[in-house]
Amino acid sequence: MTVLKPGRPEISKQYSMFRFILSTLLLAGMLYTLSIRIPAGTSSIPPLGRLLSPATGFIHNMGRLPSSETVNVNLPSGKPVQVLFDERMVPHIFAEDLADALFVQGYITAMHRLFQLDFSTRAAAGRLSEVLGARTLSYDRAKRQLGLHRASEKAIARWSEDPAEFQYIEAYSNGVNAWINSLGKAEYPLEYKILDFEPEAWSTYKTALFMKSMVEMLSAQQKDVEHTTMRELLGNDLFTDLFPGRNPHSDPVISPGTEWGFDPVDVPADSVTRIDIGATGSSEEPIYNDVQPGSNNWALAGSRTKSGASILCNDPHLSLNLPSIWYECHIVTPAFNCYGATLPGMPGIIIGFNEHIAWGSTNAGHDVMDWYQIEWADDKQTQYWMDGQKKEVEMTVEEYQIRGAQAVRDTIKYTVWGPVSDEGKYAGLAMHWMGMESPYKEEQSTFLKLNQARNFNDYMEATDHFVSPLQNFVFASRDGDIAIRISGQMPLRREGQGVFVQDGSKSSNGWSGRIPATHNPVDVNPARGFVSSANQVSTDTTYPYFYAGEPYFEDYRGRWLNRQLSGMDNAVVRDMMELQMDTRSLRAGELLPMFIHEMNLRSDLQKEEKAVLNKLAAWNYAYESDSEVPIFFEEWYKQFYQLVWDEFFRIRDSIPVAWPESWRTADLALHNPSHPFFDRQDTDATEDAPELIFQSFRMMTSARLGEEEDQMQTWGTYKHTQIRHLTRLPAFSRYVPGASGHGSALNATTQTHGPSWRMIVELTDPVQAWVVYPGGQSGTPGDPFYDNMVDDWVKGNYHRARFVRTPHELDSTRSQLTFRRP
Amino acid sequence: MKNIYAIIVFLVAGFISARYSGIWWDIALIGFLVSLAFRLSPGMAFGSLFLGGILLWGGITWLQVLQSESTLGKDLAEVFNIGSQPLLIIIIALIGGLLASLSGWSAASLNRLIRTKKG
Asked: Chain B contact for A19, CB < 8 A?
């Protein structure tokens, strides 16, 4: 028996107190550490408690859909909607009413892509800093400066003037919110747990924001400042020689010789006044590095196909992301049965087909963004001159909430042209952009009308009121029509207007209105038996209105495509697949023979150099991922380009220069080989084009042949195509070295962009279609449907769309959801 | 025997809570309450609940990873540079073990403190 000494209870009490405090402090410390974000370099470690705990963590993002479930939601009309997910998790929505179908489309899209919906629209609104902190502030400022949020407010104001149509956008929005509201915190998409924020309610405004972000992506590129700088530098004649705007070799979208069939409206004849701006700042990357993202679409008339039915194909080359920019969907109502690619954030199907027609789109690539130099009337820049009178600047204060820091306020000045920039080369210039214009109220219905179109007239009516971004809408119907129409609002310009920065003190420098929609170029059932587009120039020179590229039209894919289609008879779907996967480049096909011709005249080549040259001479211009030859050519051309335009490379860091296009560089070398630009600035000798071809070849071979055997790259590893997750985390992204292609080939796969949706529709009875895209339906990393189509996409495999009329025709389903009112 | 009952009660409560509570620190709360309810000694509370915590967090995560078609566990292990999914599960289990044991220890210490004061 232990006898307690006097005083021991006192020690024990202290010890108990100490033990309690110690254990509680340790517990509190651990709980605190697990609940906060810990900064780590430029990023941070997420709150690990929330991410790893079985109660809230990532294991809740590893589940799968139940095989059958009833979902109680407040459907617009109240009639039950059935959704079956097929073996690729594509939803087939069977509804009695369009609003119900779109409500469910919103619900299901959110179910699979909530983070994408939320993140993409926060980004468009310039609100990323609210959740990501100060590192995204400059991104947010650029977005607010561009004004997508203001443009979206304008769009909503116009669309809501037509409540009968606006109800569909509302239904979609309510569907997204029904999903969000059904979620417990544990069920939030994984990205919220990693980045530590919560989803925000969806709204019709967010649909507008999403649409405006697409408008920005497809129509906000231009080179007004660079062109002005180059004209100041080179003078008008040399500028026009190097940057002629139209490529004489091009083969336009609308068949040459097409009759326009309208009397053009008058445009002021006075010429555009020249102003100089003395811009400073660094240049963008030269265009040898990559080719602008674009797209292909075409339709073959029945006269060119084996089945006698027309075939329509489309592959838009957009940013390669996980989750994909597209979400595949099938909507069936008593009024229509439509299948295709949807854009998360927008109701209806954007590129697809129904039982009567198919349609697709590519970017028309016109310049619809102009810049104006403002003549300030006071030092504080509160007033500016317009037609000899002072005008007040409209000041708007933008407030940026920043996570972990104080909010920042910023004033944006608005003129009659648009917002005045304070960034880099655009500082002090006002932007006028079609994307900011108030749309037609009917714009909101474009895609829903296409979803329900039955013939050519319906297609024309659907695309009549489309505003932006200007698209080449291709069309084919089961009754045998094919067509392509450049749809969207085109500014009515004077000759040459918009290529350079303009004087913003004269209202006459503005657009003279819009080209009437009925004057937009359209090609219907052309004699050649096909219509096509690949972002090349829209028309031949007979089109009566002036327009320019944004900044340049595509030069090679369109010509190559038309050449292939012209030689195609008895075409079958397999031919179309091969064409979409075609990695041959006309750019290489035109440049390389000229290079090799010059090299063959040299007698001083070494053995290794001859071997490389022989490989290049035997090359079929196909950018196959397992070949090394495309690297030789690309590196050779890059060196050549840098030697030719060395004058511009020397000043690229201080002046925003524009880079001459490949075709122009090639033409100059071919027809004017002694042009002063071929003389290198850094040598005493006088070089010409053949000499630069030789020098660049030697530079290329010495660099490439110096590589170790085990480091030899293939085109696939060199090009380094990545399909990146929105957070850019490599573990959630896919690197696909097996992907072939080049920006100038029909299979236009580059490092970050490529055919983001491949679709082939044969308009037989019933209509048949084959599709694939580089991703999967689910937006949840690790999910079996997250990236399940990537390998097929790389290999050129397609999936046959399950285009059924009734639920019973679907032979295999992963899950079935029935939506009804409670 | 008391500690075995405590672990069983802890596991059952923890399992139900992980499914329905939506509170990531539920394990600490349950550990605390179980330790108080069973009047575990500080040492026993620490040891038993450390084991319980490992079994609860490690077990649930492991079971989910095992039955799921998702590769998310593997991907997250890559995000955190941990190297492998089993190692990620072990780390999760250890965090669960520590949270439960510290909370159990704290509760038992509180219990002792009150009793010492009364004595």
From this structure: yes
